[in-house]
Design brief:
Order of helices and strands: EEEHHHHEHEEHEHEHEHEHEHEHEEHEE
Largest sheet: 8 strands, parallel, barrel
Shape: globular
Strand order of the largest sheet: 4-5-7-8-9-10-11-12
Bound molecules: D-gluconic acid, magnesium ion
Number of domains: 2
Low-confidence stretches: none
Radius of gyration: 21 Å
Number of strands: 16
CATH superfamily of the largest domain: Enolase-like C-terminal domain
């Protein structure tokens, strides 16, 4: 059996999804996702110019050897661009493997460990009453776990993932605004004075059952993060995400020394080498990697197994920065992983998105049910894809009030 070629598509409804389709002489094809938010053309070029020509003639069933070939063979290892490209190939090869076996990918991983996987939705408000409405809306839709992001009184800009105006909680992600980033102004002091109390009010309003998550998005210094994690304890968070940038991983000890609030980190990590110390030192409770830019199913499975040895559960990244193909690959990992925790889930299910990526995976009452179709259980409609082309966009850039550049 051999690979005869592969195509790369860039574009999609509201997002520049990078989709890889691997073709075989036997007519079976596999799909992968290499979307790297706001840098989408880079994994596409890495695939087109360097990986696809090398894949032709290889036996797609040897997904492990192909992974090693792409990782070790490049000499320059890791990094989000290369790992997104490798991840896409790996997903596509698991898709082919499942189709050949006539089995859904989760069966190849070891079968079901649970009936369905809990997901969390996003709620956001320009202020606390607006956020309360947004949370209530998520609960009405059946979600049991909600990430809550709130506008901060006096903050010059709305804040991370927060709408500028009330009632717009669903539309905070702006795209295709060009490559010159919007500037947001941030003030950690105002945030620290307001947010822990707001989290406690959310707990009081919605009761003990709701799983409440909050994303600091790398904005605090380690000492501030320790203080914040402790101040948030009365809210009983499911997790506190990215309280401080994880580049200085020893600094995370400070959070552990001062608080028992569960910590989730890892959405920007590309490999097991970015998180092995964090996991082994048990500095985190949830690992946030994604199959997209952490090297696909083959590599993320290794991270999941290491995490399982250290009481660290999964909480894969699932922002719309990933296409439904990654979400499908993660649906299979989530159903299998013995140390599954939760899955981030943003409602991508617009009619346009469903038409481009038809699948039978479904979320109901806050639980993701995996399709039993062979392979990843997701398709890609090339006629629909022809409607879209790459459009440049950018993450905002964050500055302090005096102009100092800060972390987005
Ligand atoms: C999350 C993330 C995202 C990122 C985005 C960047 O927890 O979902 O923080 O919202 O900001 O994926 O591209
Ligand atoms: Mg995050």
């Amino acid at each position: 059996m051999r690979i005869t070629g592969a195509q790369v598509f860039v574009g999609g409804p509201g997002r520049n999804y990078v989709t890889l389709k691997v073709l075989t002489a036997q007519g079976v094809h596999g799909l992968g996702d290499a979307t790297l938010n706001n840098r989408e053309t880079l994994p596409a070029i890495y695939l087109r110019d360097y990986i696809v020509p090398a894949l032709i003639g290889m036996d797609p069933r040897n997904s492990e050897d192909i992974w090693q070939f792409l990782y070790r063979g490049a000499y320059f290892r890791r990094g989000p661009v290369a790992m997104a490209a490798i991840g896409a190939v790996d997903m596509a090869l698991w898709d082919i493997k499942g189709k050949l076996a006539g089995l859904p990918v989760y069966q190849l991983l070891g079968g079901r460990s649970r009936e369905a996987a809990m997901v969390y939705a996003h709620a956001a408000g320009a202020d606390l009453p607006d956020l309360m409405d947004s949370i209530a809306h998520c609960i009405e839709q059946g979600y049991r776990a909600v990430r809550v992001q709130c506008g901060i009184p006096g903050m010059p800009s709305a804040g991370y993932a927060v709408p500028e105006a009330r009632g717009r909680g669903k539309h905070y992600i702006s795209d295709f605004a060009g490559i010159r980033p919007r500037v947001e102004i941030w003030d950690s002091g105002r945030y620290m004075r307001f947010m822990p109390g707001a989290l406690a009010e959310i707990r009081a309003r919605f009761g003990p059952e709701l799983h409440i998550l909050h994303d600091v998005h790398h904005r605090l210094l380690p000492r501030e993060a320790a203080e914040f994690a402790r101040a948030a304890e009365p809210a009983g968070l499911f997790w506190l995400e990215d309280p401080t940038p994880a580049e200085d991983q020893d600094a995370l000890d400070l959070i552990r020394q001062h608080s028992t609030t569960p910590i989730a980190i890892g959405e920007v990590f590309n490999s097991i080498w970015d998180c092995n110390r964090l996991i082994e030192a048990e500095r985190i409770d949830f690992i946030r990697v994604a199959v997209t830019y952490a090297g696909g199913i083959t590599h993320v499975r290794r991270i999941v197994d290491l995490a399982g040895l250290h009481h660290v559960r999964t909480g894969f990244h699932g922002a719309p920065s990933h296409s439904p193909i990654s979400m499908a690959a993660q649906a299979h990992l989530n159903i299998w992983a013995p140390n599954f925790g939760i899955q981030e889930y943003l409602v991508l299910a617009t009619p346009d998105c469903d038409a481009l990526f038809p699948s039978a995976h479904r979320v109901e009452n806050g639980l993701m049910h995996v399709s039993d179709a062979p392979g990843l259980g997701i398709d890609f409609d090339e006629k629909q894809a022809a409607r879209y082309e790459y459009r440049p966009g950018s993450h905002p850039v964050v500055r302090l009030e005096d102009g100092t550049l800060w972390n987005y």
